[in-house]
């Protein structure tokens, strides 16, 4: 399985090779050729000896394959960064950059993007694109053609507390439909950026970053490089679109009506929270005198949408030159994320909504201890099993945040940088505080490895990794 997935991923080296041939020349093509050869060779080495055997995947097999593939891909996907002359990165930095791209975090250790080969800049954006919907979900759409079932992989890869629901009877069709929607939105975003004034190359790369909520830009100054209200508004709008459950887009397309989107309880709750945080940030920017009213609106809308959806693209001066209240508000907002089934990171809106309803339920039970009060979502009672999973996830997520922050502080990093950097990586948001406000290069190697692991923990939503350390899983 892992070998087959590696063979599939090796094909993704072809677009960067085309970009290198068109823009940069042979010397930039070569690292991608070598990386493709290594991926293809390793994949064949794993696949050929056992390709005649057909075994049905169990649930535990799906988790093992997903975790193994992501860790292996994080290392082998770093080859173009290590083999290239510009940048010529050490292993730790190359793995960090690759993990950041695939987990759609957007944290970077690179600088000088404006003068870097176009192929490398495009490759970073492509990592965002592939990681956005999940490379495994793409594989789920393709593997059944090769006689391998995909439901176990889909359940292991897709984030959220209620991932057993399928849009179509066959899981292959579900994955395909999600990818059709994802690619269609990327096309719309590319054309919008292009119409707003970007070059076509920049538009493609930024659409990959925006719809994946990945945050990798083609310039060191990120979106602030363009100094364009129209571009910032486009980026803010599509960041919010990408934070919506993609299943709702499919249902809306099938029913030819947006009513199904606006009736969804999680969507309404998510948009309400987004509206409150965006309005607060814009009002404070204007009240503090940082920007005039109109600039406060479009800077505040874009930057707030970018951070709380865990996109990570940045406007001019953020976060160092902004009033500390706004970066702190947005950093806390990044824990919220967006809807389940979107490309965002964080804890997700539905979990916060269920925790809020559970808190209200407990308060009502204090008044009427013998009452039978159910937690409901959209008029339907939520099973206790789901609530237990939500509470368990919330505890593990906060515990992971505290653990990684303390470990980072133990490496000698100051507390502001430690807590800000872990929030940026665990939430897959990408903009830190302190020393990592603009770039993660100042961190030592140990801290960089820890943050790479925290990005994977956030992408997996803790449980798939935790399962591998439970004795019962291996019995």
**Structural class per helix/strand content?**
mainly alpha
Question: What value does the average pLDDT take?
Answer: 87
* Measured distance between first and last alpha carbons: 21 Å
Strand content: under 5%
Largest sheet: 2 strands, antiparallel
Shape: globular
* E-strand count: 2
Uncertain stretches of 5 or more adjacent residues: none
Indicate the multimeric state.
single chain
Which strand order does the major sheet show? 1-2
Q: Give the SSE order as H and E letters.
A: HHHHHHHHHHHHHHHHHHEEHHHHH
Radius of gyration: 22 Å
Describe the structure.
With 475 residues, this protein is mainly α. Helix content is 64%, strand content 1%. The protein has a two-stranded antiparallel ribbon with strand order 1-2. It is globular and about 75 Å long. 49% of the residues are buried. The mean pLDDT is 87.
Describe the structure concisely.
This protein is mainly α. It has 23 helices and 2 strands.
Q: Which properties best describe this structure?
A:
mainly alpha; two-stranded antiparallel sheet; 64% helix
Write the layout of secondary structure elements.
Blueprint: H1 2-10, H2 14-24, H3 26-47, H4 59-76, H5 79-83, H6 91-102, H7 118-133, H8 135-142, H9 151-157, H10 171-196, H11 200-211, H12 229-242, H13 246-255, H14 259-262, H15 265-287, H16 293-308, H17 325-333, H18 349-367, E1 376-377, E2 380-381, H19 384-410, H20 415-426, H21 445-460, H22 463-467, H23 471-474
Antiparallel strand pairs: 1-2
Helix pairs in contact: 1-3, 2-3, 2-7, 4-6, 4-9, 6-7, 6-21, 7-8, 7-11, 8-10, 10-11, 10-12, 10-13, 11-12, 12-16, 15-16, 15-17, 18-19, 19-20, 19-21, 20-21
